[in-house]
Every structure is written in C-alpha cells, then in structure tokens.
Amino acid sequence: MIRLAYGRMFRDALDGSHGLPRERLAELAARFGAIQAEVRRRRGAGDYGFYKLVDQAETVQEITAFAEGLGQAHEDVLVLGIGGSALGARALLTALRKPLWNEWDDEGREFFPRLTILDNVDPGSVRAALARIDPRRVLVNVISKSGGTAETMAQYLVVHAWLENALGSAAHRHLVFTTDPERGALREIAASDGVATLSIPPDVGGRYSVLSPVGLLPAALVGVDVAGLLAGARRAVERAEADDLLQNPAALFAALHWAADTDLGAHIHVLMPYTDRLRDVAEWYRQLWAESLGKRVDREGREVHRGPTPVAAIGATDQHSQVQLFMEGPFDKVITFAAVDDLGPDVPIPPLKDVPGSRPLPAELSYLAGHSLGELLRVEYEATSAALAQMGRMSCTLRLRDLSADSVGELLMFYQIATGYAGAWYGIDPFDQPGVELGKRLTYAAMGRPGYEGQGRTAAEPDRDVV
Question: Cα separation of 369 and 366, whole Å?
Fold first, then answer.
C-alpha cells in the first residue's frame, strides 16, 4: 500500500516562514465534501471512465491468451504511438522488467521479446529501429484511439510498407491495433485486412489509458503481471472512496498541491523518484499533470489560464543538476519524492584492502566501506528531503513497499485519481485538451489534409524574425 508523507508541506515542519500554515489542512478537509460530491457526480456522468479499468477480467483474459500465444512467436514487439499511447507502456517496461531490457539475450529476458516504442516521427529513430528489427519476427502494435493521429498513422504507413516488402500478403499477421471499438481509420483497416484488434474504452482518454489495453498488451507481451497491476489499481480506487480527506491520499495530494500553487505561487510540481526504474513513470506523470490541468478556461467558460508545470527528476542523479535550483532558487516548487522500501537485491560496497601490486585506495573513502548502494540511495533521499525542509522548501513523499506489479499499478492509478481531484480543485476540465487540438488542425492544414484548408496561419508560414 502506498503511503503519503506530507508533513513537510507545512510551515511548522520547515523553516517557520515558508510553506502552508497548518490550519490550512482543516480548511481543505472542510471543503472536501463538495469536491468529492463533484467527482462522484461526474463519475456518474461518465467523465472519470478510468476508474472502471480495475474491472477488466475479460480483457485481461483476452490479453493474456494473446500474449502467451501469438505474442510469444516473435522476437520483437514494436509499438507505434505517441503521448498517452506510448508513455505508459514505456513506464511499465522500465518499472517492472530488468534494466536495459532490450540489451539482454533471450535467456536474460526469460525468452520474452524485446520491446521498442516509437513515440516520434524523427526519421533517424524510425530508420534505426527498422534496420535493427527482423520484420519476419516482429509483432507491431499500432495504438491510436482516434485511429487518425498524424504521427502514429505516418509511422504505420512506413512500417506497413516495410512489412509488406518482406512478407507480402502475410504482413497483416504481424499487426495488432489498439483503437476505438467502432470508429476510425485503424478500425476500418482492421475490418478490411483482417488485423487483430483490442478496444480502448470510449470513456478513457489517452493519457488515462495506461491500465487499458494501451498499456496492458505491451506489458503482457514482455511478461508483466497485468492482473497484479489492476489489483493494485483497485486498492487506489477503494482508498479514494474515503470521504475524510485525511484518509484519502490521492485527494489529499491534489488538495495540498492546489493550495501550494494558488496560495503560495508554487506553480512547479516536481516528481523525483529515488530509483531509475521509476524514471519513465515521472515522464508519464509529466504528460498526465500538464495536459490535464493546463487550461485556458475554467468549467464555467471564464478565461483563467490555470495549470501547474510538472517537472521530472531522478534521485540521486538530479542532486547534481536540478537540486541546486530546488534548494536556493525561487520558492515556486513542490517536490514529491517517490521512495521504494525494497529495491530488490542490493550491491555491497566492499571494504578497502591492500592488493599486492596495486596502489592503495585513499583512506578518505573508508566511510563508504561496509555499506551498500541501496543504503546510500536511501540516505541521499533522506538528506535531500531534510535539507530542502531546512531551506523552507515544500515536499512530500510517496512510499512504495516494492516495485511489484501490484505496487506500480497502485501508483499509476493514484496519480490518475489525484489528477481528477486536482481538476475539481482548480475548477477546470481535466479530460479535454483544446490546446493540443489547435496544433493538430494546423498540422493537418500544412500537410494538405482535406477539410482543413483555411485553418488560419499554418505551420508552413515562416517566422520572419530570425537572427
């Protein structure tokens, strides 16, 4: 079970001058009844569809059967997607499979396939991936809810031609589409070419889809326990039913971050896990928090330009880059640490000893001997948190028991629920993305897509102010 430590959000645990006043917590708790009622009302209206992803027994059975059957006939899985169609799958791979997954041989990967995720249209990346992968031994998972995402469909056209050149009419057997259950270009292609498909629930948006077939299929293909993911996610949903703010960690997280932002100008929200295996979870969070909460208008249609800026960091690496800013820069940040109690087998730091013919190691390194890398990482987190507090910088900590599928599933659902609550606190819709849609329309106009002519200034028009 995830634990949220939040005492260092308050002035009395910091330097006495900065941070939220302790009495603010009681005010937030008193207001939470209205926030909870709004979330429940909107859940009933279908806006919070991701809550229902914990009930997917039939989908899990289908995905597991596919992964254990056709999926295991391939050496590589190639995912084509962007944004929420890619970030979640990468987060699950990094968190739940051994580091540098694709660099291990078959035995090191327990004979599960390599997983490559193309989340951009950079020709160098696409060309390199296709040069490395054998088209005869690859399964290509194309992910687009709309079935018309420009970047993903461009990737698909390139990859489909690559498959056809190598396999001819058998190319469709190496494809699986994850898309809308009824509409879109991918659904049309699947129907005409006999491509296998999985459906994304209509009421689940892309950035909330990691625990849908969008993330579950790639995860299952590399041996992740998808049932365990959903078991942990269910626990997060159950805890979010609490009407007492202090017993509802996702709601409390959202409330404290909203208050720090609106009361104190802490507009920058940093997620800093102290393990490399959650590095891509921080990148996934960045899209979730930014695209959900950055909005021009509120739910009443008033122009507000609200939204915190999420930042991904990693401990202890970023103690040597970003932490200087966090420690002595503006008081405009909240840092959330993610700490894991059990990181698995540790690496001991050996004692200093004289080796004949070798130069003696400096005695000043003796303080490290007898400890371990895991212990050093834990001490680095504790020291950084304490130092930030002494400097009056707000922080909280999410503590995970381990990095099992159960724990990671709970963490991902925790953040999705917290984002939904944050939308209610900010008074905005956390499920649309009108700013993204404008960029899409301009892209379509510049690329000559029918129906998008005359969409205002296009991307093809140059900026005339150039040095």
Answer: 5
What are the tens digits of pLDDT across the range 137-190?
Answer: 999 999 999 888 899 999 999 999 999 999 999 999 999 999 999 999 999 999
Q: How many C-beta atoms lie closer than 10 Å to residue 112's C-beta?
A: 22
User: Which of helix, strand or coil describes residue 227?
Assistant: helix
Q: Tell whether the model's pLDDT for residue 458 goes beyond 70.
A: no
- Name 217's Cβ contacts closer than 8 Å, sequence gap at least 6: 63, 66, 67, 141, 176, 178, 198
Q: Is 440 in the active site?
A: yes
pLDDT score of 263 = 98
Q: Residue 304 half-sphere exposure, CB side, CA atoms within 13 Å?
A: 17
Q: Which of 320, 328, 353, 364 is catalytic?
A: 320
Inter-residue contact 202 to 170 (CB < 8 Å): no
Reported as a single tens digit per residue, the pLDDT across 198-223 is 999 999 999 999 999 999 999 999 99
Q: What is the mean pLDDT of residues 400-413?
A: 98
**Host H or E run for residue 128:** helix 123-132
* Long-range contacts at 370-374 (CB < 8 A, ≥ 24 apart): 372/346, 372/347, 372/348, 373/346, 373/347, 373/349, 374/343, 374/346, 374/347
Model pTM score: 0.94
How many residues appear in the chain? 467
List the domains of the chain with CATH numbers. Answer: 3-45+232-426 (3.40.50.10490), 49-229 (3.40.50.10490)
Beta strands across the sheet bearing 394-402: 3-5, 394-402, 333-342, 268-273, 309-312
Residue from 174, 291, 333, 410 carrying the catalytic annotation: 291
